[in-house]
Amino acid sequence: MRLKKLLPVVGVVLFVFILSQLDFAKIVSIFSQLNPLYVLLSFFVFVPLLFLVTIEWQLLLKRQKIHVSYWYSIKNFFIGYFYGFITPGGLGAYTRSLYLSKESDEPLAKCLSNIVTFNTIEYLALLSLGFIGAVFLIQVYPFLFIFILAVVVLVLSVYVFFVKSNQSQRFLQKLIEYPLFSKTAERLKDSLESFHKDVPNFKDALIPFSLSLTGWLLKYLMLFFIAQLFNISISIYFFIFIMAVADVISSIPISIYGIGTREAALITMFSVRSLTNGVIISAEQIVSLSLFWFVIIWLTPSIIGAFVTLYETKKMSSFKFDEKECKQFEGYMQKYLYLYRNLVDIVKRYVTTSTHPVIVDLGVGPGLLSKEMNKMIPDARIIGIDPSEQMISLANKNAKIDSRIGSSEQLPLEDESVDVVVTRYTLTYWKNPNLGFLEISRVLKPNGVFIIEALNKDFSKLRLFLIKLLMLFKKSSFSVAQYHVDAYKTAFSIKSVVELFEKNGFTIIQKKSNANDWMFLLVGKK
Question: Domains in the chain and their CATH numbers?
Answer without folding.
Answer: 2-317 (no CATH), 323-525 (3.40.50.150)
